[in-house]
Amino acid sequence: MVKQSPKQRVIPIQAVTDPNAKVYPRSISGRFQNWRIAFVWLTQIIFYGLCWLPWNGRQALLFDLEERRFYIFDMVLYPQDTIYLTFLLLLSALALFLFTAVAGRLWCGYACPQTVYTEIFLWIEKWIEGDRPQRMKLDAGPRTPERLRKKTLKHGIWLAISLWTGLTFVGYFTPIRELLASIGMGSIGAWEIFWVLFYGAATYGMAGFLREHMCKYICPYAQFQFVMFDRDTLIIAYDAERGEPRGSRPKKTADPRAIGLGSCIDCGICVQVCPTGIDIRDGLQLECIGCAACIDACDGVMDKMNYPRGLIRYSTENAVEHHYSRPQIIRRAARLRTLLYLLAFLALSGAVAWSLATKVPLKVGIQKDRAALYRESHDGAIENTFQVHLTNASEQDRRFRISVHGLPGIRLQGEDTASVPGAGMLDLSVTVANEAGSVGSGSHPITFTIEDTANPDTRVEHKATFWMP
Predict the structure, then answer these.
(1) How far apart, in whole angstroms, are the C-alpha atoms of residue 40 and residue 244?
(2) Residue 131: inside a domain
(3) What is the CATH number of the domain that holds 447?
(4) What does the alpha-carbon distance between residue 394 and residue 87 come to, in Å, rounded to a whole number?
């Protein structure tokens, strides 16, 4: 018998006989199922609730595209701050690499929106139609009024959840209270209608119908995740050495080794509870989302048989093969690749945190008036005009003082202060003057200083050019 390479065992070629066959996951209880329920509640409380959280007289989290302002609790960001979006994408990528290299697809099994909404829709389906045998019997049976009633009720609740999900999603871009008020008055905008329906339809279709097909064939993460796996990555593993050969027992009390069998009684419950319909006993497969439903199912069977738990468990390939203990598995998680991912993640996180902590709530843009390089005033001074754009990146009204330096005798003509409302902008024209002949002709560098009159630490310096004849 030819031994398979690690790569062959990790990515077996699956023979798909009927890719359209519907999967009917069986209900299961256990510690990992409790964790999944907890993550469903946690993620949905955050998603559905955060848009209702008031903060400084507005939503705590609001991406106001019309006003080009993004509110994140006390922080106000503008389109000029897209560098933080780049940092966020880099941090997400590093977190994905790190988490996958260490723990496999735990994100998919517990917190991925596809998994979460599929779980919610399955709860509704089981509540209305019953557990796995009842749902299979209902779908295979005749189209009776009872079946029509159950299907109508199920899809009605699914559609209601989907539409509310779409409304909540749009509520992060259009204030949720205003959005609901506009619906009540019939004045909701076309784009809001489109995105509510689009996001709602996506939720309804993916959680209600596509389900495991998203994880098997569509999700890009599932297609490239194994590139980040190695033999020390945490996976859901079947202990074939202990479980094989599998088979039913003549008696519950029979010693499996005495009758030439392993601990697996071949009940098939681990397959019945799998949301993607795979048999984990065939080895790790691309379709496995790491949800641990099979672990809960197998542990329950082992308890009934008075066998030790852990025939199917979270482990690594090396741990199963070499019988590593839990402390050894944890130590081997700190390998070169994961340490490099962690260091890069911490370094970038620190840089972003420092940048946000020291971010000045003032943005300044200054441009030379293009109409004339310079002009001579009635008293003989040379004047240059500049267009100044001030953005108050805080939610408090602020008054700023404008000054200029860089040349002997240079000064600002007229008013040197300007008030900008919270999260507001101001455009003004300022005139800078200098005595004729004080410096040579041509361009000369100067520096504008704009500082908060109440807090001098809030200041920005901006370089410009002063022209002399």
Answers:
(1) 35
(2) no
(3) 2.60.40.10
(4) 21
Asked whether 433 and 411 are in contact (CB, 8 A), the reply is: yes
Q: What is the DSSP letter of 364?
A: E
Q: Domain of 420?
A: 362-468
398 within domain boundaries: yes
Query: Does 416 map to a domain?
Result: yes
Domains held by the chain: number: 1
pLDDT in single tens digits along all 469 residues of the chain: 333 333 333 333 333 335 567 899 999 999 999 999 999 999 999 999 999 999 988 999 999 988 888 999 988 888 888 888 899 999 998 998 899 999 998 999 999 999 999 999 999 999 999 999 999 999 999 999 999 999 999 999 999 999 999 999 999 999 999 999 999 999 999 999 999 999 999 999 999 999 988 988 888 887 777 788 889 999 999 999 999 999 988 888 788 888 889 999 999 999 999 999 999 999 888 889 999 999 999 999 999 999 999 999 999 999 999 999 999 999 999 999 999 999 999 999 999 999 988 888 889 999 998 888 889 888 889 999 999 999 998 888 999 999 999 998 899 988 889 999 988 899 999 999 998 888 888 999 999 999 999 988 889 999 999 999 8
Q: Angle at the Cα of 225 (from 211 to 93), degrees rounded to 5? A: 100
Neighbours of 367 (CB within 10 A): 10
Question: Domain for residue 417, yes or no?
Answer: yes
Element (H, E) at 323: none
> What is the biggest distance separating any 2 CA atoms in the chain, rounded to whole angstroms?
113
* Contacts of 400 by beta carbon, 8 Å cutoff, 6+ apart: 362, 390, 417, 418, 419, 420, 450, 451, 452, 453
